[in-house]
UniProtKB/TrEMBL annotation:
The species this protein was found in: Streptomyces synnematoformans
Listed Low complexity bias regions: 1-13
Protein name, UniProt field: TetR/AcrR family transcriptional regulator
Annotated region (Disordered), positions in chain: 1-29
InterPro entries linked: DNA-bd_HTH_TetR-type_CS (IPR023772), Homeodomain-like_sf (IPR009057), HTH-type_TetR-like_transc_reg (IPR050109), HTH_TetR (IPR001647), TetR_C_15 (IPR041669)
DNA-binding region: 49-68
Length: 222
């Protein structure tokens, strides 16, 4: 009897996991990561345990260990997915096109995707703030942050071309400081007050940036 012909990927059929099993595994992985995010957000990273995460997911600890050997592995994978999603949000927010909008419109376009991301993923801030979080999470976030800083500096350079590089860097640093302080208040507020804090973040940045970049729309680059 002849051997089965290899598939297009060069592997015999028996060597490829069934797609249905792969899909179940992906759903289980996401279920466990969602549970970890909820436990981290509620209890903090240091106090979280794999048993608590398994309970949150509605599975046994043994099932969790089939996918993740420990809490650290969950945090690393969760952080990787958070950082990827944040990078995607930033790529839509901090763009040259948004820089040409009137200042209030620019702030809406740039800040809302980031605030919405943080609102939807409170576990991410917990991971970043915990001193026990695996260092890889912070390292990957630092790479994302560096990209964001460069994008914001590019927006400021378009709106205020007479600023020196040092002035742009300083304005960017101050803008991030204002935003982070406001975001902490936003995250700590109850649901009924969050939209008010969102508006306050924008008002603070509008007041800070107005004398630097003006309030009117600008011609598109090029």
């Amino acid at each position: 009897m002849s051997n089965p012909a290899p598939a297009a990927d060069g592997q015999p059929p028996a060597a490829r996991p069934p797609r249905r099993r792969q899909a179940r595994g992906e759903r289980r992985t996401q279920q466990l990561l969602d549970a970890a995010a909820a436990v981290f957000a509620r209890n903090g990273y240091a106090a979280a345990s794999t048993n608590a995460i398994a309970r949150e997911a509605g599975v046994s600890p043994g099932t969790l260990y089939q996918f993740f050997p420990n809490k650290e592995a969950l945090a690393v994978e969760l952080g990787r997915r958070y950082n990827h999603a944040l990078q995607e949000a930033n790529s839509e927010a901090f763009t040259p096109a948004n820089a040409t909008l009137p200042l209030d419109g620019m702030l809406d376009a740039a800040l809302d995707p980031v605030i919405d991301f943080c609102d939807a993923n409170p576990g991410f801030e917990v991971l970043l703030q915990s001193t026990d979080t695996p260092g890889l999470v912070a390292e990957e976030h630092e790479a994302v942050h560096t990209t964001i800083v460069a994008a914001v500096e590019g927006m400021l350079a378009l709106r205020a071309p007479d600023l020196s590089r040092a002035e742009i860097a300083r304005t960017t640093t101050m803008s991030f400081g204002i935003f982070k302080a406001g975001l902490q208040l936003f995250m700590a507020a109850g649901d009924a007050d969050r939209e008010a804090y969102r508006a306050e973040i924008k008002r603070a940045l509008f007041g800070y940036l107005t004398p630097v970049v003006g309030t009117d729309a600008i011609p598109p680059p090029g």
